[in-house]
Automatic annotation (TrEMBL):
TPR repeats lie at residues 97-130. Keywords: Repeat, Signal, TPR repeat. This is Tetratricopeptide repeat protein. It holds the Pfam family TPR_19. It comes from Roseovarius pelagicus.
């Protein structure tokens, strides 16, 4: 009980309402085009990093604090604390894709693959250019044994950024599909 109180007390104070999520559609489209045209893996990874910079810009200071808190807790393997922060973020900012993507990632790390799916799908609905959520969807579907869907999700991510590290999984998925 005391641990739960400490986790709640450590979260930042809530603001009144979440403003609209930042719209970086045009910037992300430009980065997708740049990734598709990247001459090498290093350039492709730099473009991926630039995408993350946009995805992790929260709608306001409170949302940013929740996002940062959740990511810090996840990085220190405090998955329950991370989930609490991401759940607060999703409740506060239901139109901010990264809250869903990060919560899905924690579910994935906890091997709660079924719980990760709706969050990944919602993140992609909110930000169709969210290459990381598409990749996360592919990995989650793969863990669930849904090889055909995983292959399609990974192909969609690779169409946007052919330099993703997960590209090495495509031949594996395709081979698994042929075995079925």
């Amino acid at each position: 009980m005391r641990l739960l109180f400490c986790m709640v007390a450590a979260l930042p104070a809530q603001a009144d309402t979440c403003p609209a999520a930042p719209d970086h559609t045009e910037e992300l489209r430009a980065l997708v085009v740049a990734a598709q045209a990247a001459p090498d893996q290093q350039t492709g990874r730099e473009i991926s990093n630039a995408m993350w910079e946009y995805w992790t810009i929260a709608p306001d200071t409170y949302a940013q604090e929740l996002l940062d808190t959740g990511m810090e807790r996840r990085e220190s393997y405090d998955y329950l604390g991370a989930l609490k922060a991401f759940e607060a973020l999703v409740d506060y900012c239901p139109d901010y894709a990264e809250g869903y993507n990060q919560r899905a990632f924690v579910h994935f790390l906890r091997e709660e693959y079924e719980a990760a799916l709706p969050d990944l799908e919602h993140a992609i609905t909110l930000v169709p250019q969210h290459v990381a959520a598409r990749t996360g969807l592919a990995l989650t579907l793969m863990r669930l044994g849904r090889t055909g869907e995983a292959t399609l999700a990974l192909r969609a991510a690779l169409e946007m950024n052919p330099w993703l590290g997960e590209r090495s999984l495509l031949p594996v998925l395709e081979a698994m599909e042929q075995e079925l």
